[in-house]
């Protein structure tokens, strides 16, 4: 049995707070990487149409022999499929690749506010949610103005906002908005793609707890209420990233980590990101 705690989303769906991200895992390696994560104990997989590895996730789900309801699966809408009919069509292709009747969470991957009307796209996700084929729907890389438009112009509140968060980009405003409106923050690049690993403050806290910097950083996310899904294909790291629930950071540790914020991104800025890969 997994020791991972669950958070309750704003529609009552339960999500494991720790998952396994498969961004940048080549399609041919994804099945084995996900099977390894299942073996370590992960029961939550974060993929996306644009990662081109949903097939591998589906194969791992099938081969693992795990009951479908015991695994939480998230995928995300491709940037080239924001038109409402295209969004529904793309969602149905995801179900085929994942070899499942439903996903637990379906997200708009990027707002792409300069290229399309994400409110219309969100309404397509509301229809998908209504059909029962996504147990929850949410957004990714949405900034405050995007979220405020959804609040005013649509009927279902996103269950999550999946954004870049790590000690160098603490995202205080989006986190506060999420707390106010019941939108869970999912932190992508939770260790800043490795950029935080040499930080002296994190290294000091890691020494104090006899843990690695990655573990201390992931634990900071957990205690801040974020969902995280660190990515690695190296078994020792996959295990290390799973061992977060038998130690606790003090309030002082948490405050010291909060103070590392530099508003520094490692990935694209959602306000200027307008790359549209082929659908
Ligand atoms: P991450 O912060 O998890 O960093 C991954 C890098 O850190 C890899 O190079 C990995 O080898 C290394 N690493 C992992 N564990 C380690 C450890 N214990 N010690 C040392 N190094 C370690 O960043 P990520 O992969 O960018 O993000 C994680 C997940 O977030 C992705 O797999 C994906 O599911 C999701 N994501 C979403 C978006 C989005 O736009 N919604 C964007 C990027 C990532």
Which percent range fits the helix content? 25-40%
Strand order of the largest sheet: 3-4-5-6-7-8-9-10
Work out the number of β strands.
10
Structural class, by secondary structure, is: alpha/beta
Shape: globular
The SSE string, one letter per element, is EEEHEHEHEHEHEHEHHEHH
Instruction: From the 3D structure, determine the CATH topology.
Output: TIM Barrel
- Major sheet summary line: 8 strands, parallel
Distance between the termini: 38 Å
The CATH level-2 architecture is identified as: Alpha-Beta Barrel
> What count of helical segments does DSSP give?
10
Oligomer: single chain
Q: pLDDT below 50 for ≥5 consecutive residues: which ranges?
A: none
Radius of gyration: 18 Å
Q: What is the averaged pLDDT score?
A: 96
CATH superfamily membership: NADP-dependent oxidoreductase domain
Bound molecules: nicotinamide-adenine-dinucleotide
Strand % is: 5-15%
Name of the top-level CATH class: Alpha Beta
Domains counted in the coordinates: how many?
1
Which features characterize this protein?
single chain; 279 residues; alpha/beta; TIM Barrel; eight-stranded parallel β-sheet; two-stranded antiparallel sheet; 39% helix; globular; binds nicotinamide-adenine-dinucleotide
